[in-house]
Amino acid sequence: MKLLQVTFMAIALFKCTTTNDKIPITTQSNEAKTMFLHAVEFEGLLKTDEAEKQYENAIKLDSTFALAHIRLAMLKDDFAKRRLHIKQAMQHLDKLSEGEKLWILARNNFYGTQDGKSEYDCFKTVVKLFPKDENANYMFGFVNLHHGVNQPDSAIHYYKKALKINPKVSRHYNELAYAYMAKQDFKNAEKVIQDYIAFLPNHVNPRDTYAELLMRDHRYKESIEAYKSVLKINPNAPWAYMGMSANLSFLHRFKEARNFLKPLDTLELSDYEYRHKWRSKVCGYLIEQKIDSAIVVLNQQNSESLSGENKREPIFHQFITHSRITRLYFENNQPDEGVQSFMAWKNFVKTNITRQETIDNVLGLEEYFMAFAHILKGNDEAAKIIIENNKNPSDDMKLLRARLFLKEKNHDKAIGLLNTLDANNPYYLHWLSKAYGLKNDDQNFKSVSNKIKDLIEMNNINYALIISEHSELL
Questions:
Q1: I want to staple 273 with a disulfide (CB 3.0 to 4.6 A). Which of 69, 149, 269, 333 is the partner?
Q2: Which residue ranges contain the repeat TPR (predicted)?
Q3: Helix-helix angle 380-389:395-407, to 10 degrees
């Protein structure tokens, strides 16, 4: 046993001190390391089943193999498995190099506590320590594009470095294309996707990404044809059905859109795909401006979780449906039903949620919904008192104040406040465009409207809620 421990420490020390090019791989077993490297290759080729077997076999040989745990956790969208293997990786931090430790802490910080800032800081340090490592560059690119950061230029820089270091990894192409799309640079995105198709000519993923590019470029009919080509290769591709449905909704062909979602009820879906199946159904009705029907869908989602039929994260689905039903009642000018729904959500959280930060976040929304209810009922002074007594207003609370300014015809104050909100949220931009419209400022109205157009995204509830009021953009 002592010999094994000394050997383990020697391996780890050797890897940490002999190179700064690559994140070390700490394991007690050379055979496990070989399996791990095979798994990484399979993962790069989108052969996820083969990768999964290799990671699992590596862990059987070395249960302390933290990098194998973390890569297995992130391989597929099986969230119970993800939590399990992140937890197991976290148990072995004391045995790891700094790069491995930061990698695992970053994933734990986000997927455990939704702490995007800590995740970002961890990967920022990793890429400084290992500037020539493909994973370090890819992951820092990823957190620059996702998880609320939204810095596509920085993401492009690091994705391009990752791709240059290793052009045999599918996600390097895919994420670089999405980063260009985030800038509405469809020309460069298409170039990357064509390279991606050349790399994996028989796989649906690059073609699916290309179909989404066409949708984001408002080329809906071309996107539909591209999704059809995906379904010819794989008739069980969930995202192709969702993409087809989204395109048809944007074209206001709503009955056809709903029909394209029906196969999702029988296909084998990942946890993430299952979440988006429901979002697709909800967003279709919202684009059609049928909020009542969207609420019916959300109640179906909740009932499926309550019945036990849904074995996927029932607490998550009940939580999310409570939150969305509450919001949609308010959007549908039903304040009494909205307040009642919020109270049911609050009671659900108190009974079923253990994470205190989540509980506090939901309880903290009570003032917001009470103020919103007052506005919808015409009790503007009561709403104003609640809003002005809030010492740390959220963007949503600021939006309520801006709506009051608009009712008072104080357009400049409303515009000033709305311009402080998240400029990548189409719902906030919708209200900003309204404010410019009410002020008869056509130039800024058109500018904001074009920004809304650029933010098109399927399964985005904020976008679906408002886009039919901007039908000329579609």
A1: 269
A2: 136-169
A3: 140
